[in-house]
């Protein structure tokens, strides 16, 4: 139970503020960064409460990936939802009048590049969520693709809402589950190569035609989601999908039904095992 103090703050709040202030001090000493509020910065447009400690010096770190923070040993395969979006280019920083952040950037040696590559350790990731990366510039998209090329062991991968248009040069040899909802794909040909895929989600893209879907015919694909794509309104949509993907069991969350097969050959495929194979009248 919380109790009020004479300052008007609860005792639990006081404990938190004491811890928070101590934490700020540790960061200040570790990075030798003065805890000074930037000009014209308040809390939600209000003046700063003098009873509270200064906020963390986020401006000094907001463009850093976890690999660039000193004195830690976190590996990429230990993170399920890492932020891999790179910071703005030098030109963009000047445009934003944030060139002061350039002082913290230094020339990276080949040895440091190799150390960072080992720390990222994407080759050993089995499950990874790279959704909502806010890839506003081409060099950021290329950095994401660089990472995807290294995912040789990933089995579950989420790339939701990244404005992706073409990953056809990417191969994910062990990927069984891929979610690329809310991107800008217009064709199945733009998807990565996923020979072991079992569950594929493509909802809310811009796939207008089923052309190229047969490329997944020889994969173990069992479940496919195409909701809110233009191809969903194609005549005999479900029948065409199932006829091209004989291993498919579920489309848009609905299991394969007898009427989803094109008669007469398709209807025979839908008959339960052990039946005579005759088509009912």
UniProtKB/TrEMBL annotation:
Please tell me whether the keyword Repeat is annotated for this protein.
Answer: yes
Q: What are the entry keywords?
A: Leucine-rich repeat, Repeat
> Keyword Ligase, does the record have it?
no
InterPro entries (UniProt xref):
Leu-rich_rpt, LRR_dom_sf
Supply the Gene3D superfamilies for this chain. Answer: Ribonuclease Inhibitor (3.80.10.10)
Supply the PANTHER family for this chain: GENE 29133-RELATED, LEUCINE RICH REPEAT PROTEIN
Protein known as: Protein tilB homolog
